[in-house]
Amino acid sequence: MGKSPAVELEVEDRVVRISNPDRVYFPARGETKLDLAHYYLSVGDGIVRALRDRPCMLHRFPEGVTGEKVHQKRLPHGAPPWVRTVRVHFPRFNRHADELRVTHLADVIWAVQMSTVEFHPWNSRAADTEKPDEWRIDLDPGPACPFDRVRRVALVAQEVLAELGATGFPKTSGSKGLHVYVRIKPDHGFQDVRKAALAFAHEVERRAPGDVETTWWRKDRDPSLVFVDYNQNTRDRTIASAYSVRGNPEATVSTPIRWDEIADVDPRDLTIATVPKRYAELGDLHAGIDDAAWSIEPLLEWAARDELEVPDEQ
Asked: What's one Pfam family here (predicted)?
């Protein structure tokens, strides 16, 4: 069979051409490249808010999610003139890369045209890529950890955040864990944010020692526990954004949820087929995140109290 003819999508004031629209990207469900584009259109404000002005690495699947995955840091060739970039530096290799900088929903749809399924933004923005404005709490279950344990740890994290006066915005990871994002004032570099995240992880571990660990090396971790992964705040470390589809055959979505949903949520139910209706009913549950900036100073005080240090970033 020949390739299906391209289609053009009107995205606000721009037009994006989608080639091979009928290519199946998610074989367990049957959704196509065009279905993926329509999904991102349906959550437009949410995905743009999650990505806006951040350097963004793209996970591309040119043959669908069962084929080869391409980790794309540099903007793919052939971008329209309206697609913007932000330059970031990689000290370990002393190299630079011009990464996608989303400012418009058409940027997201063009990335889909370039076979992007997952969007992985930095936790800093173009104005100063060295000063994060987002602290990411990654509740990462070991391979033998039940999801009920992740739920319990999330509620402990909520308790600690409330005592700190910080507002957490939870979401599913699109896999087996949960994430909580906290908007922070961009006053510190990556090392301080990572140290603050470690102090928070230790406090959660103190309160839930039977559920949590913070062991550095993966090989030394208990597979039945939840690792509060403070390393996700390391420079150039990224995780799937809110509303990002994940590169699995089931087309699960990293989906914002309410705190009161944690007791019942099943991440497997949140897919490109179900999230658009949910979004239409609830809107973007992370819509208020930019109005909730918090200072990490209390956590840095905890880190100093506990004499916590993190290794130098490379």
From this structure: LigD_Prim-Pol
